[in-house]
Amino acid sequence: MQWKLCIFVEILVGGAELLFDGVKKHQVTLPCQPEPWDIRNLLKWIKQNLLKERPELFLQGESVRPGILVLINEADWELMGELDYKLQDQDNVLFISTLHGG
């Protein structure tokens, strides 16, 4: 089976959206792949396709940087399996930066 999904990605608070050309809301169609899409693969896709500058301010290793909360359909991703969560069609993935300048 080929896995292709339409999901919603939102980047909010703390200026993190500036890394994405100022765009906060993205409706994306993830391409077909042989295995189901998970958050780990989504972050790689985001780095290649949505991030416009300074990926080190959003990503650390294969995950998000500390200080960035991730909600999947309004639930903390820690309750959903974090990087291993299998994305479903029409999922809403929200990244909230809790870091800010002074």
From TrEMBL:
InterPro entries registered for this protein in UniProt: Beta-grasp_dom_sf (IPR012675), Mopterin_synth/thiamin_S_b (IPR016155), Urm1 (IPR015221)
Alphabetical UniProt keywords: Cytoplasm, Isopeptide bond, Signal, tRNA processing, Ubl conjugation pathway
Pathway in which this enzyme or protein is active: tRNA modification; 5-methoxycarbonylmethyl-2-thiouridine-tRNA biosynthesis
Pfam families for this protein: Urm1
Crosslink (Glycyl lysine isopeptide (Gly-Lys) (interchain with K-? in acceptor proteins)) position: 102
Gene3D superfamilies: 3.10.20.30
1-thioglycine sites (modified residues): 102
GO biological process: protein urmylation; tRNA thio-modification; tRNA wobble uridine modification
Domain of life assignment: Eukaryota
Localization (cell): Cytoplasm
Chief subcellular location: cytoplasm
KW Amino-acid biosynthesis (keyword) present: no
UniProt signal peptide: 1-18
Family affiliation: Belongs to the URM1 family.
Function: Acts as a sulfur carrier required for 2-thiolation of mcm(5)S(2)U at tRNA wobble positions of cytosolic tRNA(Lys), tRNA(Glu) and tRNA(Gln). Serves as sulfur donor in tRNA 2-thiolation reaction by being thiocarboxylated (-COSH) at its C-terminus by MOCS3. The sulfur is then transferred to tRNA to form 2-thiolation of mcm(5)S(2)U. Also acts as a ubiquitin-like protein (UBL) that is covalently conjugated via an isopeptide bond to lysine residues of target proteins.
Descriptive protein name: Ubiquitin-related modifier 1
